[in-house]
Amino acid sequence: MSTTNQVLDTLIIGAGISGLSLAFNLQTNQRQILVAESQGRIGGNITTNKAEGFIWEEGPNSFAPTPALLKLLVDVGLKSELVLADHRLPRYVYWRGELHSVPMTPPAAITSRLLSNLGKLRALVGALGFVPPAIGSHLSQQAGEETIAQFFHRHLGAEVAQRLVAPFVSGVYAGDVNQLSAVSSFRRVVEMAEIGGGLVPGAILQRQKTGKSRPQPDPNLPKTRPGELGSFKDGLEALPKAIALKLGEAVKLNWSLVQLRPTDHQTYIAEFDTPTGRQQVEARTVALTTPAYTTAALLQPLNAQASQALAAIPYPPVACVVLAYPESAISKPRKGFGNLIPRNQGIRTLGTIWSSILFPGRTPPGWQVFSNFIGGATDLEIATLNSNQIVQTVHQDLRRTLQIQDVSPKVLAVHLWEKAIPQYTLGHQQRLEQIEAGMKQLPGIYLCSNYIDGVSLGDCVRRAQENATNISQYLTATS
């Protein structure tokens, strides 16, 4: 077994966006780091591919340009590569055989046919604060915690919960509104309702509170508009590649962690299977950016309490199906971001991103590309289908939702993520508290992954920055 002589400041397990962002922040602070990735590639779920003049994504498709993410892409030299989708592109919901644009303004909400007049009135009354209390036997059985469906049904009514919230949750998070915790999944929305007695009063109070302390925009960052989504000219994978280039030899691929154990002098020994044989690394701190189920296995010998709670976080399967069609096959061309589908409409696909409209220039002339997501917590059986069956299901769904003619699509990708997105189901906060309590017994080990408090790219970058600060403070205090 080969052993490195140098004791690292931080060993980071995983070279997805969380691990790479964390490493970049620590390296900027002059810390000695190493990033170990079990796969032969960086980026984690970020997967960009190119062929025959097409560019497409098989994981995340875009990002909300948060200040933390914008600063990171500027720092790694991607400012000129940033592309922003038109913020005016409408979003659609497929309801009763038609695509309805999602109302984004009060006037649009009034004229929208997605909600009935009674449904609009119910949503308005609830948003203003006329909301029934959260009571009932179901709450006592759920330890006082509401599901997403229960929370939005109580505040905005059945139509909003069914026709807007449910398709958003299933399409974006692959989740089931009847299983997911409202406070864990929509913490800011729940907090608004609590401080104001309703969503609108809460939003006003929160804006007054945060407006006084809101920092001035950084003039070095690209200017963005509300509702814009970002990517890069060559796709999202440009970001992890740019970060890895800055990190250089600190990133090791095909390094699989076999064992992690503490020493008697406040460090940890990690053993890896590598392309050159067994390697042993010693570090003062360790950051695990791996999924909950992987982290649970790594921590099981060290702390059963944290391991058990981590193993209880579910990850349903989701297939990303990228199909290209000639423009002549699209009967009713539309401009838009994409569409989501409520679960009771006889359509199995969760949602479709109109990729070639969102980010033009990624297809040969005369083609349109649609990125589709199918499966999730409401359709676990998707993992039992083969690729051809999944493609045929999605193709038939697109024929109905987008009125695409029955021509054979060009199949760019069928990527089944067997364990896709962590689900913040009822009891998630209690599981996090159990994990935190267990981790107090392992000083110097940090958890930095999307099962904690947000699954978007912006959440991952923000969480990495917060962990970098905590790790640096720990290293300073224990030096």
Please outline the helices and strands.
Layout: E1 2-13, H1 17-28, E2 33-37, E3 48-51, E4 54-57, H2 67-75, E5 82-84, E6 91-95, E7 98-101, H3 106-111, H4 117-127, H5 137-141, H6 148-156, H7 158-173, H8 182-185, H9 187-196, H10 199-211, E8 230-232, H11 238-247, E9 251-253, E10 256-262, E11 268-274, E12 277-288, H12 292-299, H13 304-311, E13 318-326, E14 338-340, E15 349-353, H14 355-358, E16 367-375, H15 387-401, E17 410-417, H16 428-439, E18 445-447, H17 457-478
Parallel strand pairs: 1-2, 1-12, 2-9, 6-14, 12-18
Antiparallel strand pairs: 3-4, 5-8, 6-7, 10-11, 11-12, 13-16, 13-17, 14-15, 15-16
Helix pairs in contact: 1-11, 1-17, 6-7, 9-10, 12-13, 13-16
Q: Strand percentage, roughly? A: 15-25%
What composes the largest sheet? 7 strands, mixed
Tell me, what's the shape? globular
Give the averaged pLDDT, no decimals: 94
Helix share bin: 25-40%
The rounded distance between the terminal residues' Cα atoms is 28 Å
Q: Unreliable stretches, pLDDT < 50, 5 or more residues?
A: none
Number of helices: 17
By secondary-structure content and strand pairing, the structural class works out as alpha/beta
Q: Rg to the nearest angstrom? A: 23 Å
Number of strands: 18
Report what the structure shows:
This protein is α/β, with parallel strands linked by helices and 479 residues long. The chain has 17 helices and 18 strands. Strands 1, 2, 9, 10, 11, 12 and 18 form a seven-stranded mixed sheet that branches. The chain starts with a strand and ends with a helix.
